[in-house]
Design goal:
- The protein is an alpha+beta fold.
- The protein has two domains: 32 residues; 198 residues, 3-Layer(aba) Sandwich (Protein Transport Mog1p, Chain A), CATH 3.40.1000.
- It is built from five helices and ten strands.
- The strands form two sheets. A seven-stranded antiparallel β-sheet has the order 3-4-5-9-8-7-6, with helices on both faces.
- A hairpin with a 5-residue loop joins strand 7 and strand 8.
- The longest helix has 27 residues.
- It is globular.
- The termini are far apart.
């Protein structure tokens, strides 16, 4: 049997070229990580790949609360610049808000449960003033109605379901259950500049149970905001 030395040389050359490309890509990724990676805090457990069947792990997402004109990209930032944060599981996917969602609805960040076709999701909304009169927000039903103005399904659930609220420190949590638009939980607070922050979790009513309920409850409970340094000046 005769070995073709030329063929071996070519194969080796292609292998070395491919290896070099992979190594170059790895170096490039380390030097220039995707901007969204800066939004994740330390992992709460071992690593977990989407769809790998491994246990779900959790990370902290740090939100920027960028102005309405900024849209179409993921909303994370670094911990030192964060205006809010919440826990996210490894089997959820971040989506960028559209121009309308950002400008009219105040969406700063949105995460969706993989495989739910967007039906199970959480959003962080930021709204500057309560209506055209420029009045400041307060943590009442009026604030909830202001949020629902940009979400027809939430409005539908408020009109047809049961709404209740509880106080949790500087936050008020509204729960909307049994509505035709699905089940919702909204955690609201106001920062020292008068801006309203809302963490909104939504799911079809028949899905708010088991692991989905545990996940949404943890995400809702973890949501917090960071006051501006200007309050101390």
């Amino acid at each position: 049997m005769t070995v073709d030395a030329t063929a071996v040389t070519r194969r080796e050359a292609f292998s070395l070229a491919a290896l070099g490309a992979v190594m170059l890509g790895a170096v490039t990724d380390v030097a220039n990580p995707a901007p969204a990676l800066a939004a994740y805090g330390a992992d709460a457990g071992g690593s977990s790949a989407e769809g790998s069947g491994a246990d779900v792990t959790w990370r902290v997402f740090y939100g920027a609360a960028d102005p309405p004109a900024t849209y179409g990209y993921l909303g994370g930032t670094t911990k030192d610049k964060a205006k809010y944060s919440y826990d996210v599981p490894s089997d959820w996917v971040e989506e960028a808000p559209s121009k309308v969602e950002k400008g009219a609805g105040g969406q700063d960040s949105r995460w969706v449960k993989s495989g739910s076709r967007g039906a199970v999701n959480v959003k962080c909304l930021t709204l500057n003033r309560a209506g055209e009169d420029g009045a400041a927000f307060d943590l009442t039903d009026k604030a909830l109605q202001a949020i629902a103005g940009a979400d027809s399904k939430l409005q539908e659930s408020i009109n047809s379901g049961t709404v209740s609220s509880t106080k949790d420190g500087d936050f008020v949590v509204f729960t909307i259950s049994g509505g035709s638009g699905g089940d919702y939980a909204a955690k609201l607070t106001i920062d020292n500049t008068g801006r309203l922050f809302v963490f909104l979790a939504s799911t079809p009513s028949d899905k708010y149970k088991g692991e989905t309920k545990k996940t949404l409850d943890r995400m809702l409970g973890s949501f917090t905001t960071y006051k501006s340094v200007s309050q101390f000046v």
